[in-house]
Specification:
7% strand, two-stranded antiparallel ribbon, 2 domains, two-stranded antiparallel sheet, 6 strands
């Protein structure tokens, strides 16, 4: 099981509206391993929904960017030179197979454009919600792969304007202030090339 500690109901019984696992071997939670249905007497186990979903996600291929053009090539260079890559790291390599499930793809280059690290993003993006070790103005760097297919941007989908999403990274307390200043100092054509690059992902 990928998730041996399933989320329960805080010591309380599940709500009456919850369809629970009543099969032998089930622990009463809807996402636990269950005996194979429709034959409850079978000893074959079926993975829980969350394990199946995690396996499905693990084996999805990464989005493929559009073919490079002179504009997107220059845009990538500007993306790197202004410092966007300090957080939106272009690629990382997945954990070797030996540390994952045996059939999982390990040692693969993932072009996700994220360092997957928490960063202070300032008052402008802060939502005041603390999760785990993240304070109300901290967010894990969002991967930019597939960005060209998105309609809304930022953690709360507050804008469909890519320039506004970039500018929203600048506010008091944000780690991205200097990067946005450098973006703003680019010529209009270089800014457009950077936007074209992002839309090509």
């Amino acid at each position: 099981m990928m998730f041996p500690q399933k989320r329960g109901f805080g010591g309380n019984p599940p709500p009456s509206s919850c369809v629970v696992n009543s099969q032998p071997g089930g622990a009463g939670l809807p996402e636990d391993f269950t005996n194979y249905l429709p034959n409850p007497s079978s000893t074959e186990l079926v993975p829980s929904d969350d394990d199946s979903f995690a396996t499905f996600m693990r084996f999805l291929d990464q989005p493929v960017p559009a073919p490079a053009t002179a504009s997107t090539t220059n845009g990538l260079a500007k993306f790197q030179s202004v410092g966007c890559v300090l957080c939106h790291t272009q690629s990382m390599t997945t954990t070797p197979v030996s540390a994952l499930a045996p059939a999982a793809p390990g040692g693969v280059q993932a072009n996700l454009f994220s360092d997957l690290v928490l960063h202070h993003m300032g008052e402008g993006l802060a939502d005041g919600i603390s999760q785990g070790l993240a304070g109300g103005d901290e967010f894990r760097t969002a991967p930019l792969w597939g960005l060209g297919q998105r309609v809304y941007f930022l953690h709360d989908g507050r804008t469909s304007d890519l320039v506004q999403a970039i500018q929203s990274h600048k506010s008091r307390g944000s780690e991205a202030n200097r990067v946005i200043n450098k973006f703003n100092a680019l010529s209009p054509s270089d800014q457009q090339d950077l936007l074209n690059f992002l839309r090509s992902l």
